[in-house]
Amino acid sequence: MTPAISKTDSAWSEAAGAAGAAGASAPRVAGVQSVADPTAVAGLFAAMIPGTDAFETYPWFANFIETGLDPDDQARFDIVTAAEGPPCLFPVRSRPDRFGPFRGRLLSGLSSLYSCRFAPPGLETLAPEAAAAAAAGWVKSVRARNDRPTRILFDALDDRSQALAALDRALRESGYRVERFPHFGTWYLPVAGLDMAAYWRERPAVLRNTVRRKERAMHRAYRVDLEILTDVERADRAIAAYEQVHQASWKPPEPYPAFMAGLIRTGLAAGIVRLGLLWLDGKPAAAQLWLVASRRATIFKLSYDAHCQSVSPGSILTRHMMAEALDAGGFDEIDFGRGDDAYKRDWLPLRRQRWGLAAYDPRRPIGLAQAMRNLGPQVVRRLRGRPPDAPAAQGQH
């Protein structure tokens, strides 16, 4: 399907086409198109080499746009087409920005508190030189827009990804003042060839003994049923049970009320969602949602009925879902999504860092003011020969 070109970018960006032109053999960007309708890029997603995980898939971004935007957001997909090779997509959203008396526009990657990783789909599968050229071409096209941003923000970037390095370099070379900051950690474990028995032997004795003791107590006190839902025909049952458990848990209401129901329905249809449910006496007591794609699984959401806490339904459901995943095979890695909660390292003992990039346009008053606030103290400390402070918290960007 040929994507419709947005009215604000009705022609190929000449600025983007200049990317990589310094050398005749360097990868070149032929152009950048912008489309607002996610259905217009569904075919491009289908034609791409599979990405790293579910957070690069069409169902993820389509549900995000449908249920996860704020009122002032203008979401779009920027399609970066290389002179040779496949295209890649930059899912972004633009909104008004404000700092004191100054006004501007913020352009950010299409990520949020739900995103466990962000990368432009297709970028990670390119050769490093082509990925750098794509990022440079995209930044140049953004600078050429009538609604060019005064601040650009990307977060949830993997510390090993091409996106982090390519975007950092492209933004700096285009004149932005760039701040790289730690965003969150994620706990994970390579599991290729690992079965449940071997995995469980390596877990801390306290965890193994607690789960065994609590499961025995659970079976003495309740009628226990476990199920893992993977087909869209059971979406209504999955959504109802998940929401019932969430409401009975210790967790606050979802900030975007329709997001999880939409993700369950679209994810089941696309085969990227597994929803585990543990029932006690016919009532859902624990729910756990996994996102699965490209041989990688993310334990995305888990909650349990607070009234059943004494028998640890969440831990018991985790063990059963791990057993199902490991004994069936098909995964190279499992991770625990966002955050450094202490219990996660018992289940998945390795950690990697997610990063953010904040870029400020010093040629605009608001961009200069924001750069001085966030980067100025670091510059002063370096000039004084003192080590810089820890990077600013993500909320300050």
Q: Can you walk through the features of this model?
A:
The protein has 397 residues and is of the alpha+beta class. It is built from twelve helices and twelve strands. It has a twelve-stranded mixed β-sheet with strand order 1-2-3-4-5-12-6-11-10-9-8-7, with helices on both faces. α4 (128-143) crosses α5 (162-173) and α8 (235-248) packs antiparallel against α9. The chain is elongated and about 70 Å long. The two termini are 37 Å apart. Mean pLDDT is 90; it is low at 1-24.
Q: Give helix and strand order, one letter per element, not per position.
A: HEHHEEEHEHEHHEHHEEEHEHEH
Helix content: 25-40%
Q: What's the average pLDDT?
A: 90
Number of domains: 2
Q: Write out the strand line-up for the largest beta sheet, numbering strands in chain order.
A: 1-2-3-4-5-12-6-11-10-9-8-7
CATH architecture of the largest domain: 3-Layer(aba) Sandwich
Radius of gyration: 23 Å
Binned strand content: 25-35%
Shape: elongated
Summarize the helices and strands and which ones pair or pack.
Elements (H helix, E strand, L loop, with lengths): L13 H4 L11 E7 L6 H6 L10 H10 L6 E9 L5 E12 L2 E8 L18 H16 L7 E8 L3 H12 L3 E14 L5 H6 L3 H17 L2 E6 L5 H14 L10 H12 L2 E8 L2 E11 L2 E9 L8 H16 L4 E3 L8 H4 L2 E11 L4 H19 L14
Parallel strand pairs: 4-5, 10-11
Antiparallel strand pairs: 1-2, 2-3, 3-4, 5-12, 6-11, 6-12, 7-8, 8-9, 9-10
Helix pairs in contact: 3-9, 4-5, 7-10, 8-9
